[in-house]
């Protein structure tokens, strides 16, 4: 029943994606992946019930399919996080192992129906080496693409932390679920080598994709577009080319930002944050703050990194924490809940507020409140 449910969910997700009017590249990748998963599960269901032998022409097509799941996880994660290579040739390279497997299977596909069934019922007699190589390739593929996807997620998280002051609207949980979920399936492949257990795991994975996927409005709602930053042009008098030997030793070797300009803009930044209280804007981004200062966002990021030792994300949330401490200490605010005050400071979720408060103060907001009102 789980396998039937998995097939149904995969087809249901495919239908939803097909009906979406503004499909993006990640949508097309997920659509193809869901169809492949549905076909793969259908093959197992037919084989498990002995029905597959009634359709000898289909025998063998399912063998290379496991090689595709890691590839499509990579395609999807890299596409959603805008790290997908632009050259189609490099994307096709990932499909070479699958294509090689199908080419190798051509002689088997051309066998008479009775001989194909006999090979299957004998456990793959005559194809033992191919099965071992395929299992090894599938295991290696799973491990490589799992790790690769985690690296892409880490890079993406670092990027958005350098550009946005809140992550709640840029939720990575969906991608983490896909990556770790498929990672668990690969563990079943590597350590159990039991088709029944493996496909039950795949079915549960697909069912959970349906459950969590429907909660992601960017998947079945509007198009998931890359973040566009409207960056101002830096005036020539703001930069000075430093000697090459010095640039090579610095983290921002090619930025061209002089120390004098950095000091001046840092002073303007701190004044702007305190006077205009821009941190109270829950959606404040690096590009918006750069426009206020009239400098390029890359230089603003460099200034924050070098002068504060923080990412833009942590820098803005530090101001929010300090504002919260200031407001909560006032007697006129004691009638309000902690979250009411936190929202006024620019936070837009309880989890984000608690996480940053604990990170900055080494105590929870409740513990802090008790200490100042003791």
What share of the residues does DSSP label as strand, in percent? under 5%
Number of domains: 3
Q: For the residues shown, what is the average pLDDT?
A: 80
Structural class, judged by helices and strands? mainly alpha
End-to-end Cα distance, whole Å, is 59 Å
Shape category: elongated
Helix-strand pattern: HHHHHHHHHHHHHHHHHHH
How much helical structure, as a percent, in the residues?
Answer: 55-70%
Whole-number radius of gyration? Answer: 27 Å
Got a strand count? Answer: 0
> Unreliable stretches, pLDDT < 50, 5 or more residues?
222-250
User: In DSSP terms, counting alpha (H) and pi (I) runs of 4 or more, how many helices?
Assistant: 19
How would a crystallographer describe the biggest sheet?
A: none
């Amino acid at each position: 029943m789980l396998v039937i449910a998995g097939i149904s969910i995969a087809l249901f997700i495919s239908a939803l994606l097909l009906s979406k009017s503004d499909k993006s590249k990640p949508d097309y990748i997920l659509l193809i992946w869901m169809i492949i998963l549905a076909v793969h599960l259908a093959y197992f269901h037919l084989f498990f019930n002995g029905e597959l032998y009634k359709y000898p022409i289909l025998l063998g097509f399912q063998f290379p399919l496991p090689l595709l799941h890691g590839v499509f996880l990579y395609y999807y994660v890299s596409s959603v996080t805008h790290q997908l290579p632009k050259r189609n040739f490099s994307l096709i390279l990932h499909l070479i192992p699958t294509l090689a497997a199908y080419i190798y299977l051509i002689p088997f596909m051309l066998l008479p129906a009775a001989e194909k069934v006999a090979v299957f019922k004998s456990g793959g007699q005559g194809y033992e080496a191919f099965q071992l190589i395929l299992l090894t390739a599938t295991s290696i593929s799973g491990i490589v693409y799992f790790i690769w996807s985690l690296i892409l997620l880490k890079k993406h998280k670092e990027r958005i932390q350098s550009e946005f002051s809140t992550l709640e609207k840029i939720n990575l949980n969906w991608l983490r679920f896909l990556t770790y979920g498929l990672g668990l399936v690969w563990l079943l492949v590597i350590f159990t080598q039991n088709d029944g257990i493996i496909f039950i795991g795949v079915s549960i994975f697909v069912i959970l994709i349906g459950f969590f996927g429907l909660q992601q409005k960017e998947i079945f709602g509007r198009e998931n577009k890359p973040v566009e930053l409207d960056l101002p042009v830096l005036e020539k008098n703001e930069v000075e080319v430093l000697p090459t030997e010095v640039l090579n030793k610095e983290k921002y070797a090619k930025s061209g930002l002089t120390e004098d300009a950095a000091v001046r803009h840092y002073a303007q930044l701190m004044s702007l944050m305190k006077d205009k209280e821009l941190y109270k804007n829950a959606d404040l981004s690096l590009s918006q703050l750069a426009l206020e200062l009239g400098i390029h966002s890359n230089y603003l990021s460099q200034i924050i990194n070098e002068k504060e030792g923080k990412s833009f994300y942590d820098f803005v949330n530090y101001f929010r924490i300090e504002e919260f401490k200031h407001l909560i200490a006032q007697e006129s605010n004691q009638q309000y809940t902690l979250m009411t005050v936190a929202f006024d400071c620019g936070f837009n979720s309880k989890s984000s507020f608690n996480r940053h408060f604990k990170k900055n103060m080494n105590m929870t907001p409740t513990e802090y409140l008790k200490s100042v009102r003791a």
